[in-house]
Design brief:
Blueprint: E1 3-6, E2 21-24, E3 27-30, H1 48-65, E4 73-80, H2 86-96, E5 103-108, E6 118-125
Helix pairs in contact: 1-2
Length: about 130
């Protein structure tokens, strides 16, 4: 099976030695996305809601570049800087995964890149 590197300019470029996503067979494994605007490479203004919306928009762009979509996501992992933001993050998350949501884990972490409040990675399929 060949490993295919996925890249799009519609999501933030990698800020380290990693790929935006990798496809193996019918599975796509994304890197974690934070709330960076792909054009400015700056964190979007606002709080957890704005960052969560940008994170999921970024993930959608990466999946689109791989020929998949958020509706094809089977698992997400959410990393929160503060678990007190869980409810607000969840409200925005539900806007993107409102029907047949994927399996999910959510954990609080000591810190995230660029001072982000949330980071999300996912596994999706290509049909």
């Amino acid at each position: 099976m060949n490993k295919q590197i996925i890249h799009t300019d519609k999501a933030p470029k990698a800020i380290g030695p990693y790929s935006q996503a990798v496809q193996i067979g019918n599975f796509i494994y994304t890197a974690g996305q934070v709330g960076l605007d792909p054009t400015s490479m700056e964190m979007v203004p606002g709080g957890i809601e704005e960052q969560t919306r940008q994170v999921l928009t970024n993930l959608s762009s990466v999946l689109d570049a791989a020929g998949s979509s958020l509706s094809q996501v089977v698992k997400t992992t959410v990393f929160l800087d503060d678990m007190n933001d869980f409810a607000k993050m969840n409200t925005i998350y539900t806007e993107f995964f409102n029907e047949n949501p994927p399996a999910r884990s959510t954990v609080a972490v000591a810190g995230l890149p660029k001072g982000a409040l949330v980071e999300i990675e996912c596994v999706a399929v290509v049909s």
